[in-house]
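Today's session is about reading a structure prediction critically. Students often jump straight to the picture, but the first step is always the sequence itself: look for stretches that repeat, for charged clusters, for runs of hydrophobic residues. Only then move on to the predicted structure, which in these notes is written as discrete structure tokens rather than atom positions. Here is the chain we will use throughout the hour.
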Amino acid sequence: MPDLLLELFSEEIPARMQAKAAEDLRRMVTDRLVAEGLVYEGAKAFATPRRLTLTVHGIPARQSDLKQERKGPRVGGAEAAIQGFLKATGLASLDEAKIQRDPKGDFYIALTEKPGKPTVDVLAEILPIIIRTFPWPKQMRWGELSAKSSALTWVRPLHSIVATFGIETEEPEVVQFDLSGVSVGQTTYGHRFLAPDAIQVRRFDDYVAKLQAAKVVLDPERRKEIILADARQLTFAQGYELVEDPALLDEVAGLVEWPVVLMGSFDKDFLSIPDEVIRATIRANQKCFVVRDPKTQKLTNKFIITANIEASDGGTAIIAGNERVIRARLSDAKFFYETDLKTKLEARLPKFEQIVFHEKLGTQAARIARIEKLAGEIAPLVGADPAKTKRAAQLAKADLLTEVVGEFPELQGLMGKYYALAQGEGAAVAAASEEHWKPQGAGDSVPTDPVSIAVGLADKLDTLVGFWAIDEKPTGSKDPFALRRAALGVIRLIVDNEKRISLWRTFLSALFPFVEARIAQIAQVSNAPLAELATKIDISPIIPSWNARVQEQGEQFSDAETEAAKALCDNLLAFFADRLKGQLRDQGARHDLVDAVFALGGQDDLLMVVRRVEALGKFLDSDDGKNLLAGTKRANNILAIEEKKDKRKFDGAPDAALFKLDEEKALARAIAEVGPEASDAVAKEDFAGAMTAMAKLRPAVDAFFDRVKVNDDDAAVRENRLKLLNEIRAATRAVADFSKIQD
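Below is the predicted structure for this chain, in token form.
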């Protein structure tokens, strides 16, 4: 079957747009082909700085004929309806229609056949539409027609289009269409400098070969392979090692059509700057790779350039130009770094008073104060020294105001660590400046130092509680303040480090500074209504000074206000449960087991939730677990039906005197034994032991449902047996709410 070759040749396409543009072109063309009834075998798109290319193979030569049946008006119907039917269907008269019998009467039916078009004609219709509606994030007009609103727009001036269609053994057809004067045919062009002449192409295979001969590597993956292999070889030959950078490699591959790898150098004096600053400077300004000594893993004064030309001088001028720019940029970076070292981190903190974190959450200075206080409270829970933790929290954000971070925001935290070490701070305090930002994604590492854990938790929890307090929660796909990422960071900090923390109590501690600020406001403004904020709650069990502070102002929080704050914390805990479910699901665990554990209430120790879920998952994979789950669900279903029918609960202990059958007695004995045993195991956090105890219920539950009729004719016996079923439900709730577990 025929293939399509499509190339859109233009001025330089920004590297950051190329991959998406290639995918958009593939999707838009293939979607339209399928919509037109042209099912293809395969498609692949490519991008270089000057062209988007698409090949689609295995397309039918023409559309299939389309037969349509259209129901018309009733026989003998209104003349206007009949004439409208004839006009819509193209029938000359009713003689060309068929009559279909129907229980409601006889109706005219038009049977029409629409012949399929040649595929080349379909392409001529759809390609101009796709090009004109292409979703570039930024577009421009150019040339004489640019003044007209109907002028073609593209990311850069579009010069020519290759569009051919045909089978491999024949000369392909050119897909003919008009697009604002842009030529459409079989002509493309090679490398801008090395082979700029026109090239005549027929189909994809010879197109790729002719471009290669004209110094254009079409496939971006192949360009990346060339750059990486040549860079590795060049650095290895001189005894160095390339610092690989996948994101930079993607970008550089989008800047060249014919990659040529060269090596430059800079003054060794610049090596006094931290390696990360050197790398950021060279990467950001010249898109070059840095090189390190494989023995020391420290950077050398070399860098790798990816040129787009085979220069006649071997690249000497290109190297010299890059060295000149990099020397100037490193001079700036060195000045910034040395200037930063002259000012201590704590001396920068007053400037945060003038920087608003959020209009409803106050300044950065207020936020730092909240984080410092909360981190101090969390420190003993994670085994951190409170004094070191509070010092780390105080300094953790200070590097945001430094010159280097202002120039390279991606170095936030890391520079804080360097500056903290330079001014004599301890290793744990310095490390927290960098590590409190982590983890920032699924692939990011999790800090293990207790000080970093405490500061990281305080930072993320202050953010979450603050935005919950002002009702700025994530909605749908919108999460402008990255609150989902913050919650996942909290989960990983706690679970990966196996720390025991009550989230609910920590939420309340995080709420305290917001309420404290509100109390101060009340002291200044007479008769200010306390009900304005939902973050007010008497948390005296957590912070004893709360009531005393409130009483000094002659105010107390109402029950409604207390409940509002409790609701806020519960809602935030539910948000964490959802994030934990997602994370466990990604790790292969069952999300319904998280629901089953959280449904018990009071489950805010994430580490214990995870351990309970793990134990429950293993138990349910066993025959005992599967059968007990089935029996428990059967008991739940029967209870739900009977409780609805009788409009009451069947709680309370069953009466042993009403047991008629041995199976009832055996089940009662098993529950009496298993319930306390499972509860004791859970209290000791021996979840595997709790599951082992639960397994003992299985034979008694199976036997009960095999031989006992629950809805006995004797009302007293029926009620007693329903109470026994309730005992099953109560016993299993020692480990989880089995009703939440999916079969």
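Discussion point for the tutorial: Residues 559-586 form the longest helix (28 residues).
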